[in-house]
Recover the amino acids of this structure.
């Protein structure tokens, strides 16, 4: 009898159970629940960290299992944030405009409302006209669809052009980085339709929602936890079957897989597009918790950080990607938030806010040289020792 997917992958059930327990504990200890042991601001940090864990899972799929080092997945992450941010900003502005204009004696027309909304949103870049890309900003349903469709289509087109040309290795990494840079430079322009360098702000204010930020932060934490759990389950299912075997084969020996008759380009395109969509969903949940998104979030260095997280956590291990993203994200918050005490050396005082990136870079080099399996490799070591001990008994 063939065993079930969960029976063949017990680590998935363990991960989902730990994630559910974590979410429950944070909820109970939140300010909304009454205990107040975990502040609302830190709950937002935890929610954003879960989103970063989700994009790390996507990065591990494309790099750890398929062997494609993409330095452009934060572009898809940012596009997902922009898509949902457009609706949040439009709807929030619409409610403010309608309330303001309703106080006049003559009811405003629909055209006047739209013009006022456009002036409020685009006045900062000297315009009042709605660009074409905002055509569906008034519909939450359509914008949610665009969260996946826009990054997915970009990944599909880019991947088709790159993979059909058989661009591989470092050249493909450079191409993905160039795509990210081109997108960021375009978005920095005021006529991009997305407010240029100003980006989209006030995204933490959900239109029409009167609940406190204590509760709203928990809503996003729950949504982020659910998305991470679903994404992890999907990724584990993908890599456990024939598809996973083929992409691992492409990673290890692409020529041999091609010789066996598999369409290497089709498999690469499928995993590239799938991971782009996962990254976009993570971004759509991340930026409403961050409250703002601008082109600086999409610059290539962000995707390089993502690769560092996965490498530190353990490439080729889904739980390793989660561990790496969570570890580095929370540690970064501690160091850059001024919570880490300065280190006086007598002749010089180390301020961690200034030295955090240096420490992160040194950590990446150390992991690459001395622990290529990352933090996740420790779990493999523990499991092997436990297996040997059990066999010895």
């Amino acid at each position: 009898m063939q065993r079930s997917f969960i029976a063949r992958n017990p680590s998935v059930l363990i991960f989902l159970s730990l994630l559910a327990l974590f979410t429950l504990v944070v909820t109970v200890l939140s300010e909304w629940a009454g205990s107040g042991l975990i502040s609302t601001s830190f709950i937002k940090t935890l929610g954003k960290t879960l989103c970063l864990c989700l994009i790390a899972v996507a990065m591990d799929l494309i790099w750890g299992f398929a062997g494609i080092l993409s330095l452009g997945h934060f572009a898809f992450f940012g596009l997902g944030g922009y898509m949902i941010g457009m609706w949040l900003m439009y709807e929030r502005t619409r409610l403010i405009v309608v309330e303001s204009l309703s106080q006049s004696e003559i009811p405003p027309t629909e055209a006047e409302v739209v013009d006022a909304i456009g002036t409020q949103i685009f006045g900062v870049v000297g315009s009042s006209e709605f660009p074409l890309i905002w055509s569906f900003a008034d519909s939450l349903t359509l914008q949610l669809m665009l969260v996946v469709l826009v990054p997915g289509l970009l990944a599909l087109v880019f991947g088709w052009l790159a993979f059909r040309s058989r661009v591989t290795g470092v050249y493909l990494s450079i191409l993905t980085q160039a795509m990210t840079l081109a997108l960021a430079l375009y978005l920095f322009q005021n006529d991009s339709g997305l407010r240029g360098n100003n980006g989209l702000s006030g995204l933490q204010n959900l239109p029409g929602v009167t609940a406190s930020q204590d509760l709203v932060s928990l809503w996003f934490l729950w949504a982020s936890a659910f998305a991470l759990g679903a994404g992890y389950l999907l990724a584990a299912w993908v890599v456990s079957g024939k598809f996973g075997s083929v992409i691992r084969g492409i990673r290890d020996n692409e020529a041999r897989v091609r010789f066996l008759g598999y369409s290497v380009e089709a498999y690469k395109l499928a995993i590239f597009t799938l991971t782009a969509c996962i990254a976009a969903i993570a971004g759509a949940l991340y930026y409403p918790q961050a409250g703002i998104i601008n082109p600086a979030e999409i610059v290539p260095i962000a995707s390089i950080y993502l690769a560092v997280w996965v490498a530190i956590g353990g490439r080729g291990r889904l739980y390793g990607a989660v561990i790496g993203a969570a570890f580095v994200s929370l540690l970064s918050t501690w160091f850059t938030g001024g919570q880490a005490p300065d280190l006086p050396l007598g002749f010089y005082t180390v301020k961690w806010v200034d030295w955090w990136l240096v420490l992160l870079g040194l950590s990446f080099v150390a992991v690459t040289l001395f622990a290529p399996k990352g933090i996740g490799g420790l779990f493999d070591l523990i499991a092997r020792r436990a297996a040997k001990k059990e066999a010895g008994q």
Remarks:
- The CA atoms of residues 98 and 113 lie 7 Å apart.
- The chain has a mean pLDDT of 88.
- The radius of gyration is 23 Å.
